[in-house]
Every structure is written in C-alpha cells, then in structure tokens.
C-alpha cells in the first residue's frame, strides 16, 4: 500500500506491487494495520493442566489434527489451541490468515458435524495484483 484516503465514507487504497512493477486501487470499508506476530511459549497458559498434557520428547504439547491438545484420559473435557502447534502442524501454524480455517476445524470437532465444510485443498494464494484493480 502506498497511500490511503477517506472518500464518501469509504477508504480508497493506492496499491503497488514492486516485483511486478504494477499499480492498482481498491475501495474498501476498513483497513487493518498489523504490526507483526511473535510466538510465545504456551507453558504458562497450560500450567494448571501441566500434569495432564501429553508432550513429545522435547517437552512440547502434542496437538492432534483437530487442534486439540492430547490430554490424559482422566481429563473429561477437551482443550483446543491455535498458534501453539508449529512443532506438530508445520510452518503454517502461526499464519494468522489460517485462523478462520482453524476455527472451522475446531467447531466441526466440537459439534461432531460439519457446519463449516472444509475443502481438501486449501491453497489458493496467487501473487500479483488482480486485473480488476489495475
């Protein structure tokens, strides 16, 4: 983004793709400015459950494919986590752009059905500015 201006109750953004050398504009209702993300250990958060959380050989909590902590069978409930599973789910785990997908996974697991059907293939990223905005 190279600029923004409020016009008629909306926000006009000026966009520039430096690698393509292209420019575009986009009118929107809101802009979210993010300052970054830093992972933090979850140990303090999980401390009350510490004795019941299954861990790998490095002491990290085990998280299943439904974003659920692996807990001792004595625990009657379930604990779901987001952004605490990079060691089990890979480098995409802290990607905040996947928060909606992870939330749907959790909701589906909690309800035992699929109110939010999830596609088998989720990668849809394209790079560059869309022709419609050039």
Structural features, described:
The protein has 134 residues and is α+β, with helices and mostly antiparallel strands. It has 3 helices and 3 strands; from the N terminus they run E-E-E-H-H-H. The chain has helices at residues 43-46, 86-89, 99-111, and strands at 3-7, 10-17, 22-28. A 3-stranded antiparallel β-sheet has the order 1-2-3, with no helix packed on it. A hairpin with a 2-residue loop joins strand 1 and strand 2 (10-17). The longest helix is centred in the C-terminal third of the chain and has 13 residues, at 99-111. The protein is elongated. The two termini are 13 Å apart. The model has no long low-confidence stretch (mean pLDDT 85).
Question: What layout of secondary structure does this protein have?
Answer:
Blueprint (H helix, E strand, L loop, with lengths): L2 E5 L2 E8 L4 E7 L14 H4 L39 H4 L9 H13 L23
Antiparallel strand pairs: 1-2, 2-3
């Amino acid at each position: 983004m190279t600029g923004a201006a409020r016009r008629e109750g909306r926000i006009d953004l000026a966009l520039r793709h430096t690698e393509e050398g292209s420019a575009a504009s986009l009118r929107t209702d809101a802009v979210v400015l993010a300052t970054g993300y830093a992972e933090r250990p979850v140990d303090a958060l999980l401390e009350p459950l510490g004795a019941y959380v299954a861990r790998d050989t490095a002491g990290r909590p085990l998280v299943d494919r439904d974003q659920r902590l692996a807990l001792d069978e004595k625990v009657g409930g379930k604990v779901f986590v987001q952004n605490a599973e990079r060691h089990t789910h890979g480098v995409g785990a802290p990607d905040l752009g996947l928060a909606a997908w992870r939330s749907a996974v959790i909701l589906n697991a909690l309800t035992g059905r699929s109110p939010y059907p999830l596609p088998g293939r989720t990668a849809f990223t394209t790079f560059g500015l869309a022709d419609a905005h050039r």
